[in-house]
Design a protein that fits this description.
heterodimer, A: mainly alpha, 4 helices, elongated, B: Rossmann fold, Heat Shock Protein 90, five-stranded parallel sheet, five-stranded mixed sheet, binds adenosine-5'-diphosphate, binds fe (ii) ion
């Protein structure tokens, strides 16, 4: 991973659900902010503020995604939720071991991409296979 | 008061254990870790923890079930538990609160926040233990007042009435016997009252601790004089084999209390017509004082409970003398206040030696060994 290169969104990461894609993009922007501050050799105060923001956003995004899965009766709801817990656990370990900031950045980046590509993509597959419409709250699909 | 604290951390992820251990190392506590419920349960049988940090989500037996087991069957049934839960694991967060966790640490956590919370709960726990100790003392007091202070009055009231109403029908010898009996009961009760008062003032930190130069032999002689009639009633001889040159650096009121308690115990637990020996040896800058009897002795069970508040250990004396199990607790506190220590050597049926140490008065150090 090149610290000088801006992290930009790739079309292949789209899972086709607008709101989730939108949240994923914001997440990626946050990761890029962290990259930028590391590149600038910013103080720990600034870095830890951004790490905090990433944490908070992950928390928000996971709950938002879990709600969506709940509304579409996603069969692997529990497993996906588990995966989120494990991700938070790993983020916690990683952020306390910051001897190498680039390593932390790389970890968060991979952490995010890996989950998006492997787990979240399954959501689209499920929707397609079952010919399901999706919506973001219970019962709002019949408007 | 602040002794070293012990903390248990339970988490299935070894990296987490390492991380937490490293962070908590700052607090200067003894840290124990285990990566599953079974291991944790085993540790909890052996070590009393001041705080337990338990991860909820673990494969197999989870943290909440593990806590239930620990509480059900181990010495840690009321050690406080802090649960660790993933931030978004709302279900387990509410389970953890319902389970009576004192607090919850969500992951990811901030290290300073984690440490502050740990500190708070350690302090709370310390205060809780202290309060329990105070309540125990209070209970003990009320118990003693209600029961043990009541019974001597039965004797005193009964015999004084008997004497007052039938004075003319008794001869001198009989009168002396009854009066001695009343005196001895009063003496014992007075000793008990003194113990209660000393304990109370000590616990409220109102007792003045003013060590000064005291002659051990002089205090012993005075003590034996007071106890003479009680000992005589059982035909017990008290031999004091202590050099009068030994000068202690001690609070003489406390010293009197210690001697009075140990000697009266020796009399109490020794059958008629036996001997009690008080001796002292000088060791460097302390003096070891030994009170030996050839009485009933003690079982290991009784021995292990001495000096501690909590369980009552009192056993009646060889003539049915009542006690409160309070005297030795007081002796221990007083000896410790002087920086000394107290111990017991005893064998059932053979007798007991109570040995305690107190600092010597420094001017007299040169006399060591004489
Ligand atoms: N000299 C002794 N010989 C045998 N047992 C003793 C002796 N001194 C103390 N004990 C045991 O220790 C217990 C506690 O003693 P103490 O604290 O003085 O309370 P008390 O004498 O009022 O019961 C006694 O009840 C007795 O069982
Ligand atoms: Fe996800």
């Amino acid at each position: 991973m090149d610290i000088n290169k801006k992290i930009t969104w790739k079309a292949e990461w789209n899972i086709g659900i607008n709101r989730i894609d939108f949240e994923h993009k914001i997440f990626l922007e946050l990761i890029d902010s962290l990259r930028n501050e590391i590149k600038k050799n910013s103080t720990w105060e600034i870095l830890s503020r951004i790490i905090r923001e990433i944490e908070k956003y992950a928390e928000f995004h996971f709950i938002s995604e879990e709600n969506f899965l709940f509304f579409i009766d996603y069969p692997q709801y529990i497993e996906h939720q588990e995966a989120h817990y494990i991700l938070l656990e790993r983020l916690n370990i990683a952020k306390h071991k910051v001897d190498d900031l680039c390593e932390l950045l790389e970890f968060i980046y991979e952490w995010f991409i890996d989950h998006t590509l492997k787990e979240d993509i399954k959501i689209t597959e499920y929707l397609k296979e079952n010919g399901k419409e999706y919506h973001f709250s219970k019962g709002s699909g019949n408007e | 008061m602040s002794e070293r604290k012990s903390i248990l951390i339970v988490d299935d992820i070894v990296e987490n254990l390492d991380l937490l251990k490293k962070l908590i190392a700052e607090t200067d506590c003894d840290i124990y870790t285990s990566c599953n419920a079974n291991q944790a349960h085993q540790l909890c049988q052996k070590i009393k923890f001041d705080l337990m940090l338990i991860d909820v989500r673990m494969p197999g037996v989870d943290g909440i079930e593990a806590t239930r087991r620990i509480r059900k069957s181990s010495i840690n049934s009321d050690s406080p538990v802090l649960f660790m839960v993933a931030k978004t694991d709302l279900n387990n967060i509410s389970r953890a609160y319902k389970e009576g966790g004192v607090d919850i640490i969500t992951k990811p956590f901030q290290s300073d926040e984690l440490l502050t919370r740990l500190g708070t709960h350690l302090t709370l726990q310390e205060q809780k233990v202290r309060l329990q100790e105070l309540v125990d003392t209070r209970d003990r007091f009320i118990n003693i007042l209600a029961h043990d202070l009541n019974s001597p009055f039965t004797t005193i009231l009964g015999f004084t009435q008997l004497l007052a109403e039938n004075l003319e029908s008794f001869n001198k010898e009989e009168l002396r016997r009854y009066l001695n009996l009343i005196h001895n009961v009063s003496e014992n009760t007075h000793g008990l009252l003194n113990n209660l008062l000393s304990w109370e003032t000590l616990k409220q930190n109102r007792i003045p601790f003013s060590p000064q130069k005291v002659c051990l032999r002089l205090r012993l002689d005075e003590c034996c004089l007071l106890m003479r009639s009680v000992a005589a009633a059982k035909d017990i001889d008290i031999v004091v084999d202590v050099d009068e040159k030994i000068m202690l650096h001690a609070d003489f009121k406390m010293l009197d209390t210690i001697l009075r308690n140990l000697i009266s115990n020796a009399i109490k637990f020794t059958p008629n017509s036996k001997r009690i020996i008080v001796s002292a040896i000088v060791k460097k800058d302390t003096c070891e004082i030994k009170i030996s009897d050839s009485g009933i002795g003690m079982s290991d069970d009784v021995k292990s409970k001495l000096f501690k508040l909590g369980e009552e250990t009192s056993v009646p004396g060889t003539n049915g003398e009542k006690g409160t199990g309070f005297g030795l607790i007081l002796c221990n506190e007083f000896v410790r206040k002087h920086g000394g220590s107290i111990r017991v050597e005893s064998e059932v049926g053979k007798g007991s030696h109570f040995i305690f140490s107190l600092p010597l008065f420094y001017d007299e150090l040169s006399l060591a060994g004489t």
